[in-house]
Amino acid sequence: MRTITDLQGTFELNNGVKMPYFGLGVYLSKDGNEVVNAVKDALNHGYRHIDTASIYKNENGVGQGVEQSNVDRKDIFVVSKVWNDDQGYDSTLKAFDDSLERLGMDYLDLYLIHWPKGNKSKDTWKAMERLYKEKKVRAIGVSNFMQHHLEDLLTETEITPMVNQMEFHPYLVQQDLIDFCHNKGIQYEAWSPMMQGNIFDIQLLKELGKKYGKTAAQIVLRWDLQKGVVTIPKSSKKQRIISNADIFDFELTHEDVQLLDGLDRNQRFGPDPDNFDF
Q1: pLDDT at 2
Q2: Position 276 in a domain
Q3: Residue 5 within any structural domain of the chain
Q4: I need a surface site. Which of 43, 115, 126, 233 has the fewest CB within 10 A?
Q5: Residue 33: which CATH number?
Q6: Cβ neighbours of residue 101 under 8 Å, at least 6 residues apart?
């Protein structure tokens, strides 16, 4: 089990880079004041990991939030992703440069392939390996890659992905995929840890919330970390951003972690990586 210390604690990636295991996701945060303030609030509260993507259309605001915060860029782990339309070798290199320009930065900490696109993703990955070798990005990885997507990609990689960001919550555990990634040295990361708000309807989470004196959200986020899974809950509300991070003064018992694992029903709230049309 990995050590969970505080909001600025990290998990070490397979290339030695330390990735803060708790961050702010900005999916659906509007560009401009909403995302600028969310990023500033998070960083000034102690967050050190911000996750965006070109398709979110808010990289400009993320960059402004980083710049306006009280934290040095070098101390912040900034993530973005290449969108499906931009996959391919040359187009990925351009998409990366475009993201950097919007962010107003000269490097990224992590760049991800947003969704698997078959052979095109292999060309995308070759471009990402080049960006990594040129030190324009400190780590590279994928998002929404099932085991067979990873196995296919790994047949032609020089560099093993450092991260796989997946939909992950009590109704979608995918323990086999977590184990596969762990065995390959690929850090697992959660998106949609709150099941689009549906966690608040789960009776077990209400009971555990009472037991630990925490909210359902805090129970789930703590479970993520104790599973060794990086997590990036999204919010643009300051109080929620602060509340989400209040998970370092308690620890779930092994039995309670297993109870949450037992809620798994292989249910998605987002698109299926094996069946999407964008």
Answers
A1: 80
A2: no
A3: no
A4: 126
A5: 3.20.20.100
A6: none
Tens digits of per-residue pLDDT, 171-220?
999 999 999 999 999 999 999 999 999 999 999 999 999 999 999 999 99
Q: Give SS3 for 129.
A: helix
Q: How far apart are the C-alpha atoms of 219 and 199, rounded to whole Å?
A: 10
Tally the domains of the chain. 1
* 114 annotated to a ligand binding site: yes
Listed residue (239, 231, 164, 163) closest to 199, CA to CA: 231
Considering the entire predicted model, what is its pTM? 0.97
**21 part of the active site:** no
Asked if residue 268 is part of any domain, the answer here is no
Question: CA angle 27-28-30, nearest 5°?
Answer: 115
Joined tokens for residue 125: 């990955």
Q: What is the pLDDT of residue 225?
A: 98
In degrees rounded to 5, what are phi and psi of residue 213? Answer: 70, 40
What pLDDT score does 113 carry? Answer: 98
Asked if residue 222 lies in contact with residue 216, where contact means CB atoms within 8 angstroms, the answer is: no
Contact 182/230 with Cβ under 8 angstroms?
A: no
The pLDDT > 90 percentage for the chain reads 99
Of 55, 46, 4, which is closest to residue 230 (Cα–Cα)? 4
pLDDT at 42 over 80: yes
Q: Is residue 53 part of a domain?
A: yes
Average pLDDT, the chain: 97
1 pLDDT band, cuts 50/70/90, is: low
Question: Distances from the Cα of 278 to the Cαs of 97, 147, 210, in angstroms?
Answer: 22, 20, 41
State which residues form the domain around 110. 10-261
Among 56, 111, 132, 188, the one annotated catalytic: 56
